[in-house]
């Protein structure tokens, strides 16, 4: 059973233009295309190796492309892939294009192809329709379209800009949830400060429930519970 499981974990070489054996004994494949659990992995060059436990790894360089069965594609300059875990670590000009149309860009992405969960830790961006979100750290769930953003989060949409440090965003519903100090700035200079709330980017409807303060010029509105649309606002003192 162990041997059979290891065989299932192995990458299958579909094609390659030519091979070269290096001084370290590694066989380098040029323009290789591999298949693994329904996904294809290709690059300008790459080689396979096993560790002491027999786990298989694929190192790929230049024009890396991963295509998953559902059509989601990931592009990068370099790939380290652990077959047993279906874990891809991609570096250099990483771009992930999902079937929903959202595009994730970063310089370093750790992506589990089995669970379809990706993480970046040193800055990145997600473009979803007319919404653009940048942050230092994020966790992206491809199956649900949800993302959790942390540290220096900036959201840019047609009507507002949002500045926060902790936020959840659903690319399918365009609903954002805030979990810490947040400033929402409108196109006319208005600003809403809150520390907890929800905003629907598609409809402009929002509800905030902690330390809320709305300012517009010399006018201000303060309350513990706060609801608003793009055209009106109301609060409970």
What would you say this structure looks like, in words?
The protein has 237 residues and is mainly β. 3% of the residues lie in helices and 62% in strands. A 6-stranded antiparallel β-barrel has the order 10-11-14-15-13-12. A hairpin with a 5-residue loop joins strand 9 (87-97) and strand 10 (103-112). The chain is elongated and about 75 Å long.
User: In one word, what is the shape?
Assistant: elongated
* Beta-strand content estimate: over 45%
Structure summary, number of beta strands: 25
Report the structural category. Answer: mainly beta
Would you summarize the structure shown here?
With 237 residues, this protein is mainly β.
Strand-helix topology:
Blueprint: H1 2-9, E1 12-15, E2 18-21, E3 27-30, E4 33-36, E5 39-42, E6 45-50, E7 56-67, E8 73-82, E9 87-97, E10 103-112, E11 117-120, E12 124-128, E13 131-135, E14 137-141, E15 146-156, E16 160-170, E17 175-178, E18 182-186, E19 191-194, E20 197-200, E21 206-208, E22 212-216, E23 219-223, E24 225-228, E25 233-236
Antiparallel strand pairs: 1-4, 2-3, 3-6, 4-5, 5-7, 6-7, 7-8, 8-9, 9-10, 10-11, 10-12, 11-14, 12-13, 13-15, 14-15, 15-16, 16-17, 16-18, 17-20, 18-19, 19-22, 20-21, 21-24, 22-23, 24-25
């Amino acid at each position: 059973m162990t041997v059979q499981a290891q065989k299932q974990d192995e990458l299958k070489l579909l094609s390659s233009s030519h091979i070269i054996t290096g001084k370290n004994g590694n066989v380098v494949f040029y323009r290789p295309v591999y298949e693994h659990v329904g996904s294809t992995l290709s690059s300008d060059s790459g080689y396979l190796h096993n560790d002491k436990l027999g786990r298989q790894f694929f190192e790929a360089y230049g024009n890396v492309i991963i295509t998953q069965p559902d059509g989601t594609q990931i592009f990068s300059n370099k790939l380290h892939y652990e077959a047993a875990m279906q874990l891809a670590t991609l570096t250099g000009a990483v771009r992930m294009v999902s079937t929903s149309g959202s595009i994730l860009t970063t310089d370093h992405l750790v992506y589990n192809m089995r669970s379809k969960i990706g993480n970046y830790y040193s800055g990145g961006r997600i473009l979803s329709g007319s919404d653009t979100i940048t942050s230092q750290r994020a966790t992206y769930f491809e199956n649900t379209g949800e993302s959790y953003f942390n540290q220096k989060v900036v959201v840019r949409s047609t009507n507002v800009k949002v500045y926060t440090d902790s936020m959840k965003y659903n690319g399918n519903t365009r609903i954002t949830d805030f979990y810490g100090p947040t400033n929402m700035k409108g196109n006319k200079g208005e600003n809403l400060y809150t520390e907890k709330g929800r905003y629907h980017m598609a409809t402009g409807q929002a509800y905030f429930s902690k330390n809320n303060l709305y300012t517009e010029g010399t006018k201000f509105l303060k309350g513990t519970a706060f609801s608003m649309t793009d055209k009106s606002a109301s609060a409970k003192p």
